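Weekly structure sync, notes
Attendees: PL (lead), two postdocs, one rotation student
Agenda item 3: pending single-chain targets
PL asked that the sequence for the first pending target be pasted directly into the notes so everyone works from the same version. It is reproduced below exactly as submitted, 259 residues in total.
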Amino acid sequence: MKKWLLFLVCCMQHGILSAQVDCIIAFPPHLSVCLGDVVQLFASTTGSNIHWYPSDGLSANNIVNPTATVTETITYQVTTDGCADTAYITITIDDSFASQVPTSFGYCVGEPLVLNMQGGTVTVWDEDEHLSCLFCNAPVFISNEPDMIYDLSVTLYDNIGCSYEYPISIYPSALCNVGNDVVTDVLWKATYQTNTHTIVWNAPAGEGKVYLFDLLGRMLVATDLTEQRLLVANLPKGEYIMVANAQHTPPQRQNIVIY
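Predicted structure, written out during the meeting:
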């Protein structure tokens, strides 16, 4: 949490308040802060009856030094009796931060799991021996312990230093044994193509379906095996699970990374 000091100065000409000059000056006129920051506002004037507008987030709107709790981009104006001018201060919440943070993942024992976090200028993970790195947006998680639930947290920083912390839960996935059957007479292989943002595969003989799951086991897309192509440009980067289910053959499972 940061605390900012803003100063308002009321000017006088020959000892008399004058409407012909700027008798209220706001400094600084613009400020970028983090969501929830407390901003201290000050006004100095020989006039009377300070007026702040709007009163949203202010501790008071009729005193010289109210505090403002900033929850959205806002412009405050201040006036005082005896002065025809109005001063303005615009406080801006950083709107460039657009995080993509899945808060839960399913893992299979001994298999690498990519924890892909998007949107932060800097990404910092809690210390954990199962992570490949602590200062990266997509560390690899590996656990050899069955039936364990891991509670981690990750902090993302935006480009002005605001921080946002997210809890992450990693638990055993129910999909670990889906499609692990070895089939020798059906060769199915899926590949991600970066230039077209598509997943392509060779279609085995017969009718069937291809399913795309996220790592939590939620089905995202289903299409016919004979399509041999799936556009995934609208999906976030990261690891997914594909399952091919052809007629008269057991399902075949493959992990695939969209990057």
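Discussion points:
- The CA atoms of residues 22 and 85 lie 6 Å apart.
- The chain is about 0% helix and 45% strand.
Action: rotation student to compare against the earlier draft before next sync.
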